[in-house]
């Protein structure tokens, strides 16, 4: 039999036979660095205690990052919503005289409005009064709110109150009042109802006449409720009523229509109130006291300070989670001592061994940070639904509007905050892995091979 016949026992030529046989191709070389490949191999799931520690480390970083994002976003939301609602009802700054009331307020108003930091200004009279309802049936209700006298035609230059009416219209005539939604509900008031308003001067005269044993008839002022506003903040809706400037001047006996307690200002840059206050003090002189929302509304400043404090405190959660990564790498170094020795004997440098374990930490840290960011942003997106579910489940309101002044839990996700949280957490985790990785890179190959 010829060579062709022996090669092709079925009568097929050699070229045809070899053409039908598929020769397996060699596996392609991975483009990943050697250090990262080895780190990924070490992180493969195995039924060992080290895998459990690795999983716990990832979960620790995930929870730490998620809690940080949730808390900081909620604090940012509080700061934004509180600022918007306070600025919508109160002024950015106030100008007062250090002694006495401000007479000839029109002259002071003209001086203030010429300053480039001021966007608008209105005079105001502010003080506490006693309000008594006049119901047709039942006992009258009594409360002591703060009344603010304003000029209706200029109010929109400083506040958003004219746009926040829910009943009635923003119109103030003689002996008219605007009340908040909570105040109207607590006092049982509706548009058109009449109330009696006692100023502290009237009450003082009544007390003095009683002490002299010479009873004096004090005739309080009757006001009509012309509108109900919703300032968006519980404190304002419950404790502030609005009257015409002339009526407030008469209530507090300021001595004429040109006397007010001060001026309310809208600043062009409300986020830089201190600079604006210094500019106004230089122009108006030492007899004038300029206060900003940072002094008049300490709650907003407290929220801003608490946000920064919480950021530092909650980072310790990530620090604790990073210790889990340290423990994991120390365990890996002890278990892989012989393999490290083999790598060193084959020519691996200290830097390559260092990056094997840093790469392992980087993978774990990235997994935890990405998982925490996803969990945190998801929790922020469904925060109010979760609170509603807990309220139905427990029957307890975890976020009462009467305390916090908001109907829903506010939140604001700022990209710079998320970047700081994720970047800082990743850096902390890498620093936590630096010691065991450095120790592994400094192992002597002879001592490492002698380990077992």
Provide a descriptive summary of the structure in words.
This protein is an alpha+beta fold. It has 18 helices and 13 strands. The protein has helices spanning 3-7, 14-20, 34-42, 49-89, 105-113, 181-187, 200-211, 234-239, 245-251, 273-284, 293-296, 298-335, 337-345, 350-381, 383-394, 401-404, 415-441, 445-449; strands at residues 93-97, 102-103, 118-133, 142-143, 146-150, 165-168, 176-180, 194-199, 221-229, 240-244, 259-260, 262-267, 288-292. The strands form two sheets. Strands 3-5-10-7-9-8 form a six-stranded mixed β-barrel, surrounded by four helices. The chain is elongated, with a radius of gyration of 37 Å.
Strand order of the largest sheet: 3-5-10-7-9-8
- Uncertain residue segments: 1-30
- The secondary-structure class comes to alpha+beta
Query: Percent helix among the residues?
Result: 40-55%
Per DSSP, the total helix count is: 18
DSSP summary, beta strand count: 13
Could you give a short account of the major beta sheet? 6 strands, mixed, barrel
Strand content: 15-25%
Please give the radius of gyration in angstroms: 37 Å
**Structural shape:** elongated
**Average pLDDT:** 80
First-last Cα distance: 61 Å
